[in-house]
Amino acid sequence: MASKSEAAISTVCESARDLGWLPDKDTIAKLEYEDVKAHPFRFYRDFISQNRPAIITGITKALGIDKVDWGSAIASEKLVSVNFTPNGKADAVLENKVFAKPCEEKIPFGDFWEYITSRREDRGIPYLSHQNDSLRQEIPELIGKYIPERIEWLDETLETKVDAVNLWIGDERSHSSTHSDFYENIYTCLYGVKVFHLLPPCFLPKIGEGRYPAATYHRRDDATLELEPEAEDVVWVMKEVQELSECLTVELAAGDALYLPSLWLHSATQNCLTVGVNHWYDMDFDLKYCYYSMVRALMPSPALAVKSWPHEEVSIWFKTHFPTLELPQKFYALDGQGLMDLADDPEFSIEEKLRFMDLEEPSSIAAVADGLRTLLEE
After folding, report:
1. Which pTM was predicted?
2. CB 148 within 8 A of CB 136
3. Residue 67: which of 279, 255, 340 has the closest Cα?
């Protein structure tokens, strides 16, 4: 039987569909750029204030940039930040339950363009996806000539300045895993086909969050990539939005833009070589954030997600966090409930329970106890 909180979340998610907050691919609003530009406050009323997504068409043609050769628009020798992974998955939980961060390198744009157009993978799969205002920080010469620094009609309605402008160049080999942002986001597809998978924030409990060991790809001397563990774990989603049947999938052709509302869960990829730019505006921390905070409060903590781990996942956790320790074999036979029982016992401390499991070395006991407390903390 579902708990009261689970029933409440299901009711909200059903209402999101019934009331049109979550449209489908046939009912999502499609607006002409010139019409939006002429009536910005109507767009604010119908979409931004209601936290509803919309597609805006005809942007590149209106701006006169629908025939730009993006491979030559940026000087070949210009240094740009490029993310490399062996599998196209960056900032994502891998099959071994490790949260993997990309190897970020500054290389000449000409080299990046050759890598991605020739589909070379000897250095990994390249994705120009550096954020933190990458366009204005790294390639400011594109501002004004091809890409507007700000969206004037959005500046007017939000009464604020754009916080970041980011350039994205990738192909179907690269994927951005599910996350949400505290920004109002206008993503414009300049070339190719961009694909977004979306769900409103009320679906976060159905996606779930867990705690994962983090690692970053580093370049080895032979140019291949390997993961190097980091000290801190990362809390990240347990499912991708596209795993839920309610997921809205949006395909943007060149010239289309997506208004991606703040807090919406989304993942993204491309169908082919794709160039895009997004403008981020700080969201208002208003009523929607209050509701979002309530939804988060109704979620099980990442620690409780551990309870459902099979013993294979627990084994991976021990081997990932303590690769140099020789732990007794019984540790690798624990399931998630057994892992929680190690820490949740009023009669015995974690250290005592570890001794009962034949772990003898004091430094090993201390290391495993600290790891368990970090994993299971609320």
Report:
1. 0.83
2. no
3. 255
